[in-house]
Amino acid sequence: MGVTLCGMGTDPAERWNDLGAFIREQRGSARLSLRRLSELAGISNPYLSQIERGLRRPSAEILQQIAKALRISAETLYVQAGILDPPSEVPDLARQILADPHLNEEQKQALVRIYLSFRREHEGEMAAGMVDAGAAVAGAAVDGVAVDGAPAGGADVDGGPVPPEAVATVAGGTAGENGRMTGGAG
Q1: CATH number of the domain bearing residue 91
Q2: What DSSP line would sit under 73-89, residue for residue?
């Protein structure tokens, strides 16, 4: 394919060296010994050492076990190994935080919790804004004509009151006492 990923070369030997270095960095940031990571991943200590040194090409299943033990997404390791192409859509920040080699596990978890709480808060604000906008449209009048069944004497497009006397004629019609259009084209 010839795609260079995260500093990885197109040479297979270089790719496995880079993958091994990435796993070693993740293990270091998670403060895990080689022996402990091999136990958590369910693979032998020598085999993990060979993977980290770029001497072995791990299967997708082994990468998944290592990712689970490191608490990072398997997709992150698949991309590093060249099994998957990097995602083209907007990146998931939580995954990127979890994959950051410069943070320890406690810092990663704290950042993800904060990030997700901000997203939930923003999504709540967006939903509330949509409800408010819907209510404003339901009671609005545009140029004295009722919108969605609201009387023309209700509110204008800016949300301010529109007095019935300000609702003049539209195509020869007039506003009746209740603000509804009578006669003419309305």
Answers
A1: 1.10.260.40
A2: -HHHHHHHHTSSPPP-S
